Amino acid sequence: MNVRPGVACGDAVANAVRLIQMAARRAAARAGPTRVVAIDGRSGAGKTLLASRIRIQLDAPVVSLEDLYGGWDGLEHGIDLLVSEVLVPLADERPASVPRYDWLTREWAEPVLLEPPELLIVEGVGAGARRAATFVSLLVWLEAAPAARKKRALDRDRDALAPYWDMWAAQEDAMLDRERTPERADVVIDGISGNVLRSHMS
């Protein structure tokens, strides 16, 4: 079956969501009482769409790393804030104060208070970095070809993203060369078709 770039097959996505849903419910909590599902992948791979589907099925809050980067040069900073401001407090069974960056004003807005949930979805580039993965119960990686990812991302955010695409991609390259996130993922999904490419879940 041919699938247009950016359009996932409904049945395949539904199957992937069911797999993640079952795996998340069986996984052990590693951030205090909270089981964290991390959805990682490069820009345009479909992380936000998948997270929204899983959020509905699991009735779980979502923390997006886009709110934590603090600008186009902030990939590593976003991961650091995820750990220090979200995952460590939850691991200590304390409420998290989730940072929130306003991309229009380029200023930090008031953080959002997050009481420790039973299950939390974290989505964004770097969600599965090793310093965050210590607290992660299930790591999902979305894989997609560069051309398809770029088309999807620019179709969504062309004016904001186009001038920074190469800068951001270079940060992704450096981070992934170090982190090897796809190799450590529990589940790998084709971000275009929605097919599960690999799973360590029984």
CATH topology: Rossmann fold
Low-confidence stretches: 1-9
Can you tell me the CATH class? Alpha Beta
Fraction of helical residues = 40-55%
CATH-level-4 superfamily name: P-loop containing nucleotide triphosphate hydrolases
Distance between the termini: 27 Å
Describe the structure in your own words.
Helices cover 42% and strands 19% of the residues. A hairpin with a 4-residue loop joins strand 4 (101-102) and strand 5 (107-108). The protein has a single domain (10-197), classed as 3-Layer(aba) Sandwich (Rossmann fold). The strands form 3 sheets. A 6-stranded mixed sheet has the order 2-7-1-8-9-10. Strands 3-6 form a two-stranded antiparallel ribbon. It is built from 7 helices and 10 strands. The relative contact order is 0.23. Helix 1 (10-26) packs across helix 2 (47-58). With 202 residues, the protein is of the alpha/beta class. The chain has helices at residues 10-26, 47-58, 75-91, 130-133, 146-161, 165-179, 181-184, and strands spanning 35-41, 62-64, 96-98, 101-102, 107-108, 112-114, 119-123, 138-143, 187-190, 196-199.
